[in-house]
Amino acid sequence: MMNTEDVVNPWQMQLRAHSKRKISRDTVTLAFDLLPLADFACLILSGYLGTLIYCTVTGDGLSADIWSIHKTRIIILALLAPVLLYDRKLRDATGHISLWNLAGNTVMRFIKFSGAALTLGFLTHSLVDVPRGLAVTWLAIGLVLVTVLRMLLVRELRVLERIGVLCESVAIVGAGPVADRLIQQLLHARPDSMEIVGIFDDRMADPATHETRQPAALNRPVGTLQDLLDIGKTRKIDWVLLTMPCTAENRLLSMIHTLKALSVPVGLCPENVGLLLPYRMIDYVADGLPVTLLADRPIRHWAAIIKSVEDVLLGGLLLLLLLPIMGLIALAIRLEGAGPILFRQPRHGANNDVFDIFKFRTMRWSADAEQGPLKQTSVDDMRITPVGRLLRKTSLDELPQLFNVLRGEMSLVGPRPHAVNMRTEDRLGHEITDEYPHRHRVKPGMTGWAQVNGSRGATDTREQLRRRVELDIQYVENWSLLFDIKILLLTFWVVLRGTNAR
């Protein structure tokens, strides 16, 4: 009969045989915690380099007087950098974010920092005598230093993970299907930098023989909680994850009480780990009630503010620039015949709300026709007027939707709003694809990712509708300011080509 020592000692010897890690996850966390301080230093360094370059270009050489005059202002404004450039999600995103996306995110944060620094400077009148060339040079060098610093940090961490120097050690408490799925998920997410210490479960020990069983699904050694406590004395463990159901409250409390002897974070793994149901996002409701966030607003917080500013600023600017053209179009419609200049139609907006969209009227007006059922426009629709055909071909009939944008009913970029009760092959959109309502999670747009990818005009077939919804969902789930700018630039090219215009 095997006693407890015969089981524990070989188990401990096997774990001690593992190679020692040269860099722990705590060191990595500390590096990211020190990143705000590094950002501050980068802004000070960029201020000095910017002064040097500015004085050299202007022919004065490095003037001690110029640096002494402006260094205090630079230091004060640089204090904003740790607050506005800090990204608490960067630490968790290093494993899957691309370096180019990282650079794009950093640029967006630096734009916020620049705007806040310049606004504060002008409000306090502390930048009145600062040369514009010096300010631009300072911010440009600061952007380069901050971006390169993050890219180098993430790149080096990935190299360390790939060669096995940096590794996250996880111990799992509780054997069973949840533990099996958890191990597969961890190893799939970080195959080169994840070390599973093992599965520990007091129930795996048979009281009759004191032998330790192996879990059926995974060929991994299993120990008890006492084994885990002994191992924690001799090696570094980053996480202890419990895989029991939260309803086993007494057992969980007992385990937590026991595991507190280890100075290690202890977490409860969600039972749906490894399944299609989302489980990663945690949020808080009311007075700090923790919940698992299964779905969220696709554009929120700062992203929502940035998109609103984009709509107001760009929308207002475009409206001012295009007012003369819109006036000429209105005159042409009025001279062509009777009827209103603008066409209003109920469309689905954000949260499936209904609003009236504005367009230049392109069809022959009839009071009776407005009371009839909705009929989609076809390519050779006889109802379209000569002026209307030109407007549709050039998409100029969509210009009045700038008023919808400024009223907050639409965005410049987003899924195109469909008419209420619009049908494709005599079926409503949600009857063809169950993802159809998901496109209404954001405001509709004057242009969108679907339109610049050829899905423009009427949807005559189910395949066309499914393709458009698929592209709309891609936009909703991957929104960024750079994505919007890309779509706007592509829109001009699509309009010039007149692709699928109706």
Q: What is shown here, in short?
A:
The chain is of the alpha/beta class. 49% of the residues lie in helices and 11% in strands.
Describe what this molecule looks like in 3D:
By secondary structure, this protein is an alpha/beta fold. It folds into 3 domains: 4-21 and 167-290, 3-Layer(aba) Sandwich (Rossmann fold), CATH 3.40.50.720; 25-162, no CATH class; 302-497, no CATH class. It has helices at 4-16, 25-33, 35-57, 64-78, 81-84, 90-93, 99-123, 132-162, 177-189, 225-232, 249-259, 302-336, 367-371, 386-394, 401-406, 429-432, 462-477, 481-497; strands at residues 168-173, 194-200, 222-223, 239-242, 266-268, 282-285, 289-292, 342-348, 354-360, 411-413, 423-424, 427-428, 445-447. The protein has a 5-stranded parallel beta sheet with strand order 3-2-1-4-5, with helices on both faces. A two-stranded antiparallel ribbon has the order 6-7. It has a two-stranded antiparallel sheet with strand order 8-9. A hairpin with a 2-residue loop joins strand 11 and strand 12. The longest helix has 35 residues, at 302-336. 27% of the residues are buried.
**Radius of gyration from the alpha-carbon trace, in angstroms:** 31 Å
List the strand order in the largest sheet. 3-2-1-4-5
Give the domain tally: 3
The residue-averaged pLDDT reads: 80
Strand content: 5-15%
Give the helix proportion (percent range): 40-55%
